[in-house]
Amino acid sequence: MSRFARSATLGVVLAVAACGGGTSGGAESSQIDDLLVAAEAAGSDQQVAIMEDGVVTDEELLDAVLAARNCVADLGMSVSSISRQWDGDLSYSFSANDDGLVTAADRCQEDHAVLVQQAYNLLNPANIAPVISRFNACTGELGLEPINAESRDDLRRVAQQSEDEAVLECYTEAFPSTVVAD
Fold this sequence. Notes:
This protein is of the alpha+beta class. The protein has 9 helices and 4 strands. The protein has helices at residues 15-20, 25-42, 45-51, 58-74, 99-112, 114-123, 129-141, 152-161, 165-174, and strands at 4-9, 82-85, 90-96, 177-181. Strands 1-3-2-4 form a 4-stranded antiparallel beta sheet. A hairpin with a 4-residue loop joins strand 2 (82-85) and strand 3 (90-96). Helix 4 (58-74) packs antiparallel against helix 5 (99-112). It starts with a strand and ends with a strand. The relative contact order is 0.17.
């Protein structure tokens, strides 16, 4: 039987927020309301309770991801620590021995955390500027000129076009993560 390793990154950003680079208060509120309706329709009481006040705190997001990770662990899979990524997303990895377990683990994410993560991302849009600064500082140490980038895709393109492994390392190091729960 093959062994699956999977990372559960719960940061699914709504297309409207990704395209617009942010939303106005009215549109943001409407999108949060839509997520709340989706959570109610799915019967996810925990996600409803977190989102019903229109605010998702760091602690509430962590509680949702912990519940999802605990659900995966209850399925008998080993799980890693939870890390906060550069953009606020929380992620962890798990191992599964078959597709059925992967499907069950995906259901844990859906039941406990996916909609909360989407709401969190809407309310706390990622700021790419510090990442670009870290990348430019690192590549500056290599003697390269700073780049003008506006997105992660811009940085990825520069890193992929470079034949220098050190530039690829700068790209990786520009996107830090921090363990927030063991």
